């Protein structure tokens, strides 16, 4: 089982989900995707995460991002768990949860924790671009819930930097200044970034967010 790395092609699959049998690539279409895994149904941290993901769906929709979750339990179990999520988190789960009982998808995405038991998926996040390449991988311990504000921030950065010759600095949020690519000479950068280029050091140039 090969380890997925940034820039690798995200493996395609067809799987039973809480919303029927779906093909991953067909589900994503030409948009972005987030695939995130959970160790098991009816687990406390994951219950809060799936509820939060449902509440964030509108923000991800604005960014043309579709979510898909995964657990190694079955579809019937997922449907019962979704009832609990909706009740306790005061929301409606509005994205599919993969029923990965045969661990096919978990193995494709290297989600089985080598230091745990042989079915416990680690809590991984994969952000996948329209080109079906893996753009980001995050792995959390079971005790720490994921930060969906950070996932939105990363998507904003990935989408911005995919279309403009910039990078985003530490703690960047949409609308804040961005870093000019080091490959672009300052004089050329001034012609590209018409809102202005601030040279702090020859290698550190800032410009206003070109999308703001």
TrEMBL record:
Family from the record: Belongs to the peroxiredoxin family. AhpC/Prx1 subfamily.
Report a single Gene Ontology molecular function.
peroxiredoxin activity
Query: What protein name does the entry list?
Result: Peroxiredoxin
- Say which species the protein is native to: Flagellimonas pelagia
Gene3D superfamilies per the UniProt record, alphabetical: Antioxidant, Horf6, Chain A, domain2 (3.30.1020.10), Glutaredoxin (3.40.30.10)
UniProt entry tagged with the keyword Oxidoreductase? yes
| Active-site residues, Swiss-Prot/TrEMBL | 46 (cysteine sulfenic acid (-soh) intermediate)
A Pfam entry, by short name: 1-cysPrx_C
Q: Name one GO cellular component term.
A: cytosol
NCBIfam families in the cross-refs:
PRK13189.1
Question: Matching CDD domains, A to Z?
Answer: PRX_1cys
Domain (Thioredoxin) spans 4-160
Q: Which InterPro entries match?
A: AhpC/TSA, Peroxiredoxin_AhpC-typ, Peroxiredoxin_C, PRX_1cys, Thioredoxin-like_sf, Thioredoxin_domain
The enzyme class is oxidoreductase
Q: Which SUPFAM superfamilies match?
A: Thioredoxin-like (SSF52833)
The record's EC number reads 1.11.1.15
User: Per the UniProt entry, what are the Gene Ontology biological process annotations, in alphabetical order?
Assistant: cell redox homeostasis
**Keyword terms:** Antioxidant, Oxidoreductase, Peroxidase, Redox-active center
């Amino acid at each position: 089982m090969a380890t997925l790395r940034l820039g690798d092609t995200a493996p395609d699959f067809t799987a039973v989900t809480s919303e029927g049998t779906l093909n991953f690539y067909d589900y994503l279409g030409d948009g972005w995707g987030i695939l995130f895994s959970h160790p098991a149904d009816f687990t406390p941290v994951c219950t809060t995460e799936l509820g939060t993901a449902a509440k964030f769906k509108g923000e991800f929709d604005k960014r043309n991002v579709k979510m898909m979750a995964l657990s190694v339990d079955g579809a019937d179990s997922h449907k019962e768990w979704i009832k609990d999520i909706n009740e306790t988190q005061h929301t409606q789960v509005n994205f599919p949860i993969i029923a990965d009982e045969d661990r096919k998808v978990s193995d494709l995405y290297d989600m089985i924790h080598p230091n745990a038991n042989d079915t416990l998926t680690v809590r991984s996040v994969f952000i996948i671009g329209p080109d079906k390449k893996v753009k980001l991988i995050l792995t959390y311990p079971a005790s720490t819930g994921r930060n969906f504000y950070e996932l939105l921030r990363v998507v904003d950065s990935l989408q911005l930097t995919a279309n403009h010759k910039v990078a985003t600095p530490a703690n960047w949020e949409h609308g804040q200044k961005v870093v000019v690519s080091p490959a672009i000479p300052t004089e050329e950068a001034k012609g590209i970034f018409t809102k202005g280029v601030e040279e702090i050091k020859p290698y550190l140039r800032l410009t206003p967010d070109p999308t703001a």
